[in-house]
Amino acid sequence: MQRTTFTLRGIGTTAVGAVMGAAMAGTLLAAPAQAATAPASVSAQSCAGYLQKPYKVSGSKHIMALAEARGCGSRMQYEVFLQRSRWYGWQKMDTRRWTGDGSRTLSSACDGTHDWRLFMNVTEPGGQLGSRAGTSARLTC
């Protein structure tokens, strides 16, 4: 299962993700320079997020994908959207929000053929640290 991997390695720097095995693609997430300080609980080596490539559940008309964050501390806030492509842009089909480490499964009923993706916003009290779109998948229901 393919997933997008991103890391936060300090404020104002760009972190390059790694390829997580043959089926997983790495990307990066940059923290904006305007943020003053990194939370004390964020470890440069261990703070990571994962956005799974959406997939169609076999034998059904449902799309699912997993979003996960770990090692980033209890102050980090996450908002993840399962989106599908439309002629006007990306339509939000499901949303999950949480604070601290954890994972959430997003799902939606589907019809027709669309591109699907996960999109994550990462914030802490006082400002947004970044956002990332995961790998999209063209799925037919």
Automatic annotation (TrEMBL):
Domain of life: Bacteria
Keywords: Signal
Signal sequence, renumbered to the chain: 1-25
Protein name per the record: Secreted protein
Organism annotation: Nocardiopsis mwathae
Lineage summary: Bacteria, Bacillati, Actinomycetota, Actinomycetes, Streptosporangiales
